[in-house]
């Protein structure tokens, strides 16, 4: 389970809190696994649920009594949880996103939201979008379309994220496809560097990796400026030099 504090720029999502999800997701349907099947295939899960049966049945004044006592009360967005997605906290001090590349993290849908491409853009890689969202350009632009809160926080709800000028790729344009693939490669490199940095122990190793992260970040920014066709003067404004 992922909350807003679990999401950091390009970093792997942590595994600090876990949920039981006694459902099968198949063919766009979510079905509760029969308890006899849980006992047979997931005996420890069944044992845990039975130990808490009274508590589970008593949810919402006993609403969950009956054959579905171990199920969820609400199944909102469950079909869309176990898929690859980008994750953005609802409140941020700057725009940034993380990548759930395996789809094994479920979002609490309160202080963190998920982003995927709709079918019209499914040929594009989510890592391409991750590079855009983590770029200096969109980080600079986002406060102009978001709502400010106290303490320097800004809202990253869907209504504000939807106003970002996302640069899409024309699959019929060789130049566009090349830029797309270059950005995906750089983002993949950034993801690997952050994973190495999280595991690094020695100060010298951390310093070297930090320099590589900075260089890759600059390469991503340069490519994003190229994708959006920014002039040198516009780049200086984005970077606070003008």
Notes on the structure:
The chain contains ten helices and seven strands. By secondary structure, it is mainly alpha-helical. The chain folds into two domains: 23-62, no CATH class; 78-238, no CATH class. The strands form three sheets. Strands 5-3-6 form a three-stranded antiparallel beta sheet, with helices on one face. Strand 1 (23-26) and strand 2 form a beta hairpin. It starts with 22 loop residues before the first strand and ends with a helix.
Structure described in brief:
By secondary structure, the protein is mainly alpha-helical. The chain contains ten helices and seven strands.
Q: For the CA atoms, what is the radius of gyration?
A: 22 Å
| Overall SS class | mainly alpha
Strands, total number: 7
Tell me the number of structural domains. Answer: 2
Compute the separation of the termini in Å.
Answer: 43 Å
Mean pLDDT, rounded to whole units? 92
The main β sheet shows up as: 3 strands, antiparallel
Provide the β-strand percentage band. 5-15%
The sequence of SSEs as H and E is EEHHHHEEEEHHEHHHH
User: What oligomeric state do these chains adopt?
Assistant: single chain
Give the fraction of residues assigned to helices: 40-55%
What are the segments in which pLDDT stays under 50 over at least 5 consecutive residues? none
Question: Which word captures the global form?
Answer: elongated
Placed side by side, the strands forming the largest sheet appear as 5-3-6
The total of helices stands at 10
